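Methods: example folding runs. The two proteins below were folded one after another, and each record is reproduced exactly as written to the output file, sequence line first and structure-token line second.
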Amino acid sequence: MHTLEQLRSGELAGVTRLSLSCGLREFPPEIFTLADTLEILDLSGNQLSALPDDLPRLTRLRIVFCSDNLFTELPAVLGRCPSLEMIGFKANQIATVPADSLPPSLRWLVLTDNRIEALPASIGRCRPLQKLMLAGNRLRALPPELAACRNLELLRLAANALEEFPHWLLTLPRLSWLAMAGNPWCALVEERADGLAQVADIAWDDLQLQDKLGEGASGVIHAARWHVDGAPQPVAVKLFKGAVTSDGLPEREMAACIMAGHHRGLIPVLGRLQGHPQGMAGLVMPLIDPDYANLAGPPSLQSCTRDVYPEAMTLPWSQALAIARDIASAAAHLHAQGIVHGDLYAHNILHRSGAALLGDFGAAWFYDTAQPHAWGVQAMEVRAYGCLLEELLAHSQPAEEKGRAVLAGLRQACLSADAASRPHFEAIVAMLDELA
């Protein structure tokens, strides 16, 4: 984080990234002294409600973050910034997105947790758009012009006011990661799933929290001791924050985790937390062996929709194949119950020699497997799995020729632009079982 004093003194001359969070009410004009170099501008966590009309003077500006401010309208001036690729205005009070606020070069747009009721038709001009994050708004429908964004891969629409499922989304050839929970159109299927998602209650007083293991958008995970039948049992406790996340609603994540049930490729739920002193919701799960590690890191600003792997990471072929099998089997299990994971990514996979676990259900949602569009929903997630196969092939040791050719062919089939030609997860599992 930088300071205004550093900026005004000239200490930041030549920087490519500037981060200011100091209660700003107006855009500091000194930022224009960085026009020759500035590429990333982060003004999140201030009290801004407007940007200057001459913002395009920052000709090299690629990324703008203005989350947690007081904007009620997405600034139209953004559409005139010649190099702008990413816009992040999460958690403002934005109700209006002007038609001229979206630059045609846009790849990544984050408008999570605002008050937007409609998107402009001009979004269809953003042909490079890959990631669109709109959870926690008031959208009643999507503009049909969005169908022109054929590079769109990740779309977050959870916790909106969509009355119908926009079936035409499933025709987008690259769509892979979709979150839809918490909309009126899926209320009935969510109620049905909630009725089936039964699990034991675990009293807060029977738990002894220990070290924090991790924290995500929806909650914090702690190691804990569960005192049951007189013997303390090691467990993990996820305490949910209760707010809208970039992916959706914590209560929908909890329901999906419970409904998922038991499978070797999933982390089971032991019980639902009851009696937290602050009323926090939570789930109790087995404590995962520390030998498990994340397969990759999340996407970066540069990679946009693709995970980032450690440099020179190379998996033994047997491990790469085991991961592919376990995750395909877990996905088949979920879709058989009408659950879309929504975030099938390597960074949500824990692995160790010969085993893999798919976690983080923050983007999960339910669908009716009897509906005509059901296959399109699964085919969309099959493409996400194809991206995983592509990465496993790139980061594994050479295998015998037949095995690698089979996996490469499977990858190509899963990534097909024709969703109808992609294989079902059950067929993928059968193919990998024969290969093992």
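Second run, written to the same file directly after the first:
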Amino acid sequence: MNNHEPTPNTPLPGVRVAGLLAEFDGPEPLRLAAERVRDLGYVHWDVYSPYPVHGIERAMGIRPTVLPWLVLLFGVAGCAAAILMQWWMNARDYPVLVSGKPLWSLPANIPIAFELVILFAAAAAFIGVLGLNRLPQFWHPVFSSPRFRRATTDGFFLGIEAQDPRFHETSTRELLESLGATTVETCFAPATRPGLPAWVRWAGVIGVLVALVPPLWIARARAIRADRPRVHPIQDMDFQPRYVAQGPGPLFADGRAMRPPVPGTIPRSQPPADSLLETGLDNGKPITHFPLPVSQALMVRGKERYEIYCAVCHGLAGDGRGPVAIRALERAEPGWVAPRSLHVDAVRQQPVGQLFQTITRGLNTMPSYAAQLTPEDRWAVVLYIRALQRSQNARLDDIPRDKRALLER
């Protein structure tokens, strides 16, 4: 050996002593050594073994970490964020009233709150483990020892770092040897923390520049108005070959793209030919008779349509106590006009044409049902309403004479 060649315990120029690494014969000597090091007050040290050693955490004096509290804290934060987000979107920023349902209620928001609790807690556990263990750490001074490679096969090691307040290279080495270590090595590390390689710095700069491209592109698109969609990866039917209304169309003999309406087409605002059936008016006054034959089939059809479109507010009996009306009254919805009972005199005395007009045009908070019900269906509903009114306001004169005698007995 050259006299100028440093010994294994002598640091080379530009490096420093990072700690001592001791090897033991098995898990039991390692556990006993860990207990002794713990009792002496060392704090910056660790043990390495190819498999978990039973009781080693107690021997090292490892205390519970704050990780469970971090997971709990972030889980509660996720729940609060979910509840606040849904309350803001549904009850404040964009309220939509649907069938008298509350704008915001806790039971409806439980699934999203549960999902964000899991998301926040899992993220806290993952990031917390990395942070508390100072990871990722791609290099450690113990890697400078070729013997340390056996830590994944059959080697049991205990390492004490030089930054420990009680560390002294000579006395600490003697301590490890007295604890039964077969070998004690000195681990070295660079005297100064090495900087990032140039290619890593350039990769970071290029990554930042590339990450700025999308927001800059979005800002440019928002500042420039265009007729076509700014980002349109799916063409759909927006750019298909088509004719423009009132434009030329060489496909047709007359050279026009727009086709004339089908014969017999009328605008919705134009009075239909059969004004009695379509409007229920005669010279501007509601008619008092049905403009189509009354039959049992028409009555059954009216009952079906009434239970679909009318009963939710007016109730199955026509008393104005439908589920939507009850809910709106309980919540005291602003602007809500309670549906009128169909059995009050003011409604019973209305001609059938006026009832037809109410269904067609709507009244107060009741919308028009002209788009949902054909004129024949609207007359069927009026017929069923008359039957409901008769059921609640029947007179003795309504019973045929041959059956009235049976009731008078």
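Comment on the second run: The radius of gyration is 43 Å.
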